[in-house]
Amino acid sequence: MTAILAAVVLAVFPMPQLGLWGNPGCSLPGATCTRVLFIGNSYTSVNDLPGTFADLAWAGGHRVQTEALDEGGWTLAEHLSASETAPTIGSERWDEVVLQEQSQIPSLAADRISMMYPAATRLVAMVRQHGAAPLFYLTFAHQAGWPEEGLPDYSSMQAAIDAGYIGIADQLGVPVAPVGAAWQTVVDAASHPAMWQSDGSHPTVSGTYLAACVFYATIFRQSPLGLGYADGLPNAEARTLQTAAAKTVLGDSALWGLTG
Questions:
Q1: How many CB atoms lie within 10 A of CB 233?
Q2: The dihedral of CA 41, 42, 44, 48: what is its sign?
Q3: How many CA atoms lie within 13 A of 118 on its CB side?
Q4: How does pLDDT run across 15-59, given as a tens digit for each residue?
């Protein structure tokens, strides 16, 4: 009788398959699950953003399955021409396909027009053709900006990146996960965790956790504030990042195309 009861409990409330916080994904028939494909580069792969998002989602009671195409330094144009992109998009019934451009291209108008926008337009069409919803990953600027191209500091480069993503998002009717905007909220505070690695470009664990919180709020339209998964960060720091993500995404959801 005890064995039967245990089997019933496990069938109804199955244990995570990837450790304490590991998201069990879409393996169970009939279970509600969200499938998310990330297409980007090292801003996606460093610290495993898809995995962090999946574990955070599990803490909020959401099953997710993630996959990533995230070669270091790749542009959306390179993904568009890569042999594996179209088959991967067509390989699953993805709910969301995240599109992340190389970190500098969105900040320059000429590069947006010649490189980002044409590739993004074709990828969005491809994603929609397969029945998935495209989602832009609005990235964060370099810590020192890009002085060589007239962007002398972080804030000026972030403003240019924001304009780059919002411009194409409005044109194509695609929502945005505003990681860069939440990032600026954090770094503008009097004291904040280290968000960039020593290269001034790639995220620390704190930066990746913030990004995961933004994706949680964007995809589920729910606040991550109070979720128990902290990815090894101090609880107070995790709460600060959760708060910034929630306020950025849900405080002005229309700006990010999330009202539909």
A1: 17
A2: positive
A3: 8
A4: 333 334 578 888 777 778 999 999 999 999 999 999 999 999 999
Report the alpha-carbon distance of residue 192 to residue 236 in Å, rounded.
Answer: 11
The number of domains in the chain is 1
Do 160 and 201 meet the contact criterion of CB atoms below 8 Å apart? no
pLDDT digits 0-9 by tens, 197-241: 999 999 999 999 999 999 999 999 999 999 999 999 999 999 999
Burial 168-184 (b: 16+ CB within 10 A, else e): bbeebebbbbbbbbbbb
* Residues linked to residue 133 through DSSP beta bridges, in sequence order: 96
153: in domain: yes
Length of the chain as a residue count: 260
| 29 lies in some domain | no
In contact, 60 and 220? CB cutoff 8 Å: yes
Starting from the edge strand earliest in sequence, which strands make up the sheet with 96-99, in order?
64-69, 34-39, 96-99, 133-137, 176-177
Q: Whose CA is closest to 181, among 201, 155, 206, 216?
A: 155
Among residues 99, 98, 143, which one has the least CA distance to residue 119?
Answer: 99
Specify if 184 maps to a domain.
Answer: yes
Residue 13, both tokens: 């409330």
CATH number at residue 102: 3.40.50.1110
| Domain of residue 130, residue span | 35-256
Q: Domain for residue 4, yes or no?
A: no
Identify the three-state secondary structure at position 56: helix
Calculated CA dihedral for residues 235, 241, 245, 251, nearest 10 degrees: 90
